[in-house]
Amino acid sequence: MGKIISFCNQKGGVGKSTSVINAGAYLSALGRKVLLVDLDSQGNTTSGLGLKPREIQETSYLVIMGNLPAAKAIKNTELAGMDIIPANQDLAGATVELVHFEDRDLKLKKALEAEKQNYDYILIDCPPSLGILTVNALMASDEVIIPVQCEYYALEGLGQLLETINLLKNHLGAHIQIKGALLTMFDRRNRLSREIVKEMRRNFPGYVFEAIIPRNVYLAEAPSFSKTILQHDPYSHGAKAYRQFAEEILKIDGYKN
């Protein structure tokens, strides 16, 4: 059975989509079968892989609403071993529509259950909020990875996210565990970046990945070419960091590469 991991932080611009795309790329390159689930109506993960959100009919919106089996929404990517359930603007309406369902918090969990046997990893790109879509992602997930940018206000909202996860575990029976925090947008020349790394490791010992994602021009421009960093520039610092991150995930999970 595969493992479902949400990439979650209610702050925008922390590198969630970039991390989902590139972690998925390297996990698949290292021999794992990966499914990405775009749960953000902005569709950055979708467009970052060369799909055009406005032209796609079968999306995560229909899946989470129960109108389409997950298997019918899965699209292949250019990378062997990595597929995606895409998103578009339709997903914005789900926040209001899901309120009317008694099982509104479990819709995604039920939809993805059958796919766990087909993939080693299912990675969910959460929207930048703690609304019902994110709750669905967390309820469906075995683990959560929290991207944290190495910038001012980096820790803002982190406590609220951890509190939300505990509430889901205590009151809704979620089985989710925190896999770790992934430090992103690190600039070694910047004293604040270095201080945030120290602060995170001091405040969350054992919960911060060793891999640190640098601020990197090749990472930033790869989505504009509809490429993962593995395809765009596999020798860049950003590529090496995401490979290390993927290897770390596999090591934690007991895989040998």
From TrEMBL:
<dbReference type="InterPro" id="IPR027417">
    <property type="entry name" value="P-loop_NTPase"/>
</dbReference>
<feature type="domain" description="AAA">
    <location>
        <begin position="3"/>
        <end position="178"/>
    </location>
</feature>
<protein>
    <recommendedName>
        <fullName>AAA domain-containing protein</fullName>
    </recommendedName>
</protein>
<dbReference type="Pfam" id="PF13614">
    <property type="entry name" value="AAA_31"/>
</dbReference>
<dbReference type="InterPro" id="IPR025669">
    <property type="entry name" value="AAA_dom"/>
</dbReference>
<dbReference type="InterPro" id="IPR050678">
    <property type="entry name" value="DNA_Partitioning_ATPase"/>
</dbReference>
